[in-house]
Write a structure and sequence with these properties.
The protein has 64 residues and is of the alpha+beta class. The chain has 2 helices and 4 strands.
Length: 64
Amino acid sequence: MAIISVTVEDGCISCGICEETAPKVFEVDDVSTVIEGVNFADFEAGIREAAEECPVEVIKFEEE
């Protein structure tokens, strides 16, 4: 199943794991954000890993 959306919920602690794992998808400043215009299909493995590794479990994705 393809990932069609990615969000970062409230509670991000800015650890940077998501940005290290998928730097073309996530950007961390004060908190993690999803970079606009990203084709999620190109980075599915990194998105899944970032969500799994997030220590506060705030990275969510939706599949079609």
